[in-house]
Structure formats: C-alpha cells, structure tokens
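task queued by scheduler; priority normal; single chain, no ligands, no partner chains; default sampling; output format set to structure tokens
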Amino acid sequence: MWLANPFTKIFAYLGTTNTEISSQGTYTVDYNPNSPSVSLNSPPDNSIDNPPSINFNWKKDTLSVNYIFQLFSDSLLTNNILTDTIHNNTDTFKTVNGLTLNTKYFWRVGGKNSNGVVTYSLAWKFTTSQGITLNLKIIPEGLYFSLFNQLARRDTFTVYLRNTASPYSKVDSAKSVVDSVNFTGSFTFPNAPAGTYYIAAKHFNTLETWSKAGGAAMILNDVTFYDFTSAASQAYGSNQKLKGSKYCAYSGDVNQDGITDASDLIKVYNDSYTGLTGSYLKTDLNGDNITDVTDLGVLDNNVYSGIFIARP
C-alpha cells in the first residue's frame, strides 16, 4: 500500500499512556555506538525485605570512564536522595547506609564516556524490610513492687541480638522503654536478618540477662514476643530471681562488670552513707530517688550469693 505524504510523529510513553510530543515533520535519529551502557545487578528490580544498609552493584561497562549513582524516592525520578560519582570504571558498587525501613526506593547508574556523554540505565525499584520487632517483657528486681505488681518507674533497656554460635557476636542492638505496668518494651532491629538469636538485655544497674539456651527465632516484618518474667528458665542458666509471682533480672551490677560483688556494694554503701538523692542514680536500686539502706538490702543478698552473668 502506498501512502501519500508520509510523515513522522514522536510519542513519549509514561506507564501505559502515550503522549504526542512532536508535530508532523522529518526527524533524525542520532545513534552513537560509543555510548555507555550500564546494567544493574543488585538489589534486584522489585525486590523486597532489603536491609537499610545496601551494597548496590552493577556490571562493568568498558565504554565508561566513570559512573554516576543515583537514588530516588519516587518512580518519576524527581526526588533525588543521593547522587554520587565513582571516578573510575572498575569500582562497580556503592554502599548506602541508613535507609528508612518499609520504604520503596528507585536507583539507577549512569555511565559517562570520554566525551562526557552520560547514558543512564533503567531505574530499578526495591523495598526495605520492616526489620525485626521484639516485644520483650522483663523486670529489674529492685524496681519491682510485688504488692502493687508494678515497677517504680518506666525505664530504658538496651537489647542486643547475638549469634547462637561462638563467639556469640552482636548482630544488632536497639533501645526501648520498658513500661512500669505491663513490663514490656518494643525493640526494633533494622539490620538483623531473620534467624535465631540470643537476646541479651542490659539495664544501667541490673545484671545483664540472656535468653534461654538455643536462642529465640525471629523473622522479618513481624513481631516476636519474649517473656523473661514467666519462668526462671526463660533466662540462660535460669539466672533470675522470683519476687512475688514474677521472675526478675538481678539488680545491683552498679559498675556493669557482669557480677554483683563487693565493688558494687561499696558504691551503694558510700552513697547510702551520704544520703545521695537524685533521678536515675546507679546506686538507687529501687527507684525512689535516694540511695539508702533499702538499696543495700536489695544488693546484699545478691553479693552474698555471688550472682554473676550467665551466658553461653
């Protein structure tokens, strides 16, 4: 079939919608065989559950003299979070830390040739995970009043996730406030992959307490519950103290050396002798804002029993 007066129009596609962007006319297509062509490797397109620290990498392009890495928060690539130039063509990676959990991102890499021409790869999308959330129930012995079944105050704990194999290295950490009524704090671990971990809970004047032998299984994008208070055996080596109906972590490791001993007792005794007052005193074991004989009473039994950290 012969068409009279053939002509060309140019359309742009955005998703499934095409838009005419030229009028009738004659156009020249400029093809440059020396244009860079960069192919992305990882994180894969449309991947999910990525950690907030990612090592982006792509294939080496021989026509590129350097690379331009770009990260965006939108599919239109208008909100640029990061642009960085890699000033050679051999380093085909870029590490980015501190990405937001449960968030979509878009990334691409441009190759720049010796003439200064930059050609970008297609943009790939990935989503970060929600991380691991641990709802932990734990009671510091000194702060617990069994008559009222509550703590003297809400207080901050630091929790470490540790490998279950020697040397039991720290994988991730999180801080949260443990409530005075339900004894629970919610801890989010952004960097730990799904797996089985020991839970090591630290409080500023309480003996560090580890979870039971074998560790606890944790998965991404879900909540894991762990209750130290329900049984002595919930702690490694059953290293807890029954107070009323609750099992508590031992109070009195004032200098945080992993044992309740004379060095802790001396500190509490000296502050008790002077009647030291104030908020969040290390030697105020029962949380009443004064170091006195009641704090000595909490610690004395633990020192006499030689209580120390139990861990694998």
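post-processing summary
- Residues 262-274 form the longest helix (13 residues).
- The chain is about 10% helix and 40% strand.
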